[in-house]
Amino acid sequence: MGQGLPVTYVRVVGVERVTPGTARVSFTADELPGLLEDRPDQQMKLCLPRAGQAAPRLPERSADDPYGMRWYEAYLAVPEAERPWMRGFTVRSYDRERNVMAVDFVLHGADGPASRWGAAARAGDVLGMVGPSSLYARPLPAARRMLLAGDETALPAIATVLEALPAGTGAVVYAEVADAAEERELPAPPGGAEVRWVHRDRGGSLVAAVRGAGADLDGVDAAWVAGEASAVRALRRHLVEDRELPKSAVEFSGYWRRALTQDDAPTEEDLAEAAERAADAS
């Protein structure tokens, strides 16, 4: 299970609006039982069809290409007008008995292909899926009290991390959302969790909230941070330099980039983040 970088097609079996700005889409595929694992923060890519396509056009994947490098080259060789949009997501849940995977789509409006697709998703729609793979799995840092911080794109992963925390680990969550209507119930781990919602419509920001948390973060000895890339980098610096957490105790991931999409080339900061992650893993 989880070997290599799998590529498959998934079919929509249900859509639920969990908040005004979030659609939870349920998928199934015969391959899912062999792809999904019982671990938190399973990240993968969904491939969205271009206009006029019933399903995205994806190249075949060879068994001797575990990291998907040749597959990705073939993907880039597809003419741009026909090449599927590829966006990163986290598996919110997987019901093994029903063979149904749930994925949350944040609906930012009509500008982005993932938002457009998520707002219009219907049963029977087909997407491509690349991953998830245990090759890229990163274990949670051990902790007595863990900080989980992110924006709405990180909430599915935060929920899975909360569900995976052992009984001896407490948590404090800082979550940035558009407004109070975007709040949602999060899982309660055995060790308990305190949730702090940060509302952008009231001028709040995730970075400012965590930096100003003061004694609220006393006892935090590890952190998991994800969301907009520049905010994630700022929080990591704060936690390591000001809160004096070891680098190995801060798991971080930039899910998206302000004013850029995943179709754009990596910036110098993106490459620096990737290098830091690689250094931490070595």
Task: Write up what this structure looks like.
This protein is α/β, with parallel strands linked by helices and 282 residues long. 23% of the residues lie in helices and 30% in strands. It has helices at 32-35, 69-77, 113-120, 155-164, 206-211, 229-242, 268-281; strands at 7-19, 22-28, 43-48, 85-95, 100-106, 126-130, 145-151, 170-177, 193-199, 222-228, 250-256. Strands 1-2-5-4-3-6 form a six-stranded antiparallel barrel. Strands 9-8-7-10-11 form a five-stranded parallel β-sheet, with helices on both faces. A hairpin with a 2-residue loop joins strand 1 and strand 2. The protein is globular. Residues 262-267 have low confidence and may be disordered. This is Siderophore-interacting protein. Residues 263-282 are annotated as: Disordered. Residues 5-139 form the FAD-binding FR-type domain.
> Outline, from the CA principal axes?
globular
- Rounded radius of gyration (Å): 19 Å
Helix content: 10-25%
Distance between the termini: 24 Å
* Largest sheet descriptor: 6 strands, antiparallel, barrel
Low-confidence stretches: 262-267
Order of helices and strands: EEHEHEEHEEHEEHEHEH
Number of E-state strands: 11
Structural category? alpha/beta
Organism: Streptomyces californicus
Region (Disordered): 263-282
Protein name: Siderophore-interacting protein
Domain FAD-binding FR-type: 5-139
